[in-house]
Amino acid sequence: MTLVQLLQKSINYMEENLLQNISIEDIAKQAHTSVFHFQRMFTLLTDIPVAEYLRRRRLTLAAHELSTSNIKVIDVAYKYGYDTPESFSKAFKKQHGISPREVRSFRGKMKSYNRLVIQVNVKGAEPMQYKMVEKGPIQVVGLKQEVSCANGENHRVIPQLWDKVNADGTGQTLFGVNDGAIKGVLGVCVDKSKTKANHIDYWIAAAHEGEVPEGFSKLDLPSSKWAVFEVHGPMPDAIQKVWKLIYSEWFPSSGYEHAGTPDLEVYSEEDPYREDYYSEIWIPVK
Question: Is 235 helix (H, G, I), strand (E, B) or coil?
Fold first, then answer.
């Protein structure tokens, strides 16, 4: 199956099991990928996290039932996975702007989030600069932190980690020890879903040969064929834009798949907010 077909299969699975307590692990299995890579792919292509999609769809269907039947509010709450009518009413009002009882009395408007159908742009209207290289194994040294991907926690914690590293001088130290195969300071995501569900180890590191400098840990990246994408522009918008193009255009049309090992963001020693700032995305492919 293609990436698009696998993602659509996972969406179909969610839709068929909206009334069940399905896990992100079960959903990711439909796409034959890890939880981390599935959540990244889904969010990049749809602009919403998996949990938010499920929440929106369930509350959309709940509103439809309340407006077209005599089912009790408490029964609708339990049907769509809420432990109490109060928690259901709070979530319902947050999405629709009105309470369940106001729907029942036909007061106010509701928001309908329809079932997703994935349509990926493979026209390649915007050129992407990339090259294929074979490198590895590569030793990187740096700092790591275990991060949860639940409820978008990784999007909050990782920028804080970069702020700390840049403020305390660790970033400059990493540039100083960078004498390995990749030039620049790296952001590395290591999927931990096989040992700890919905978690990653996030590294801020640099390629380095020889002994591990004091205060740092070591990570060995396997030999890989890498697709290396150029990124031009200020952080974080420029690199986020290229990530989206990779999943929405490059993967569907290239014939390559993600190899499942850690991918890298590579940052140069310049002002990251410059309009012409240069960085790279390295993705192991097969």
Answer: coil
| Closest by CA position to 118, among listed 48, 188, 21 | 48
Structure tokens at 157: 């914690």
Convert the pLDDT of each residue in 97-113 to its tens digit. Answer: 999 999 888 777 888 99
Q: Are 180 and 167 in contact (CB under 8 A)?
A: no
Element (H, E) at 244: helix 237-245
Both 136 and 81 in one domain: the answer is no
**Residue 118, pLDDT score:** 74
Find the CATH number of the domain harbouring 61. 1.10.10.60
Domain end among 86, 104, 122: 104
Encode 233-249: b = buried (16+ Cβ within 10 Å), e = exposed: bebeebbeebbebbbbb
Which of these ranges, 80-89, 156-165, 248-257, has the smallest mean pLDDT? 248-257
Same domain, 251 and 148: yes
Task: Give the pLDDT of residue 224.
Answer: 96
What's the domain range around 44? 3-104
pTM over 0.70? The answer is: yes
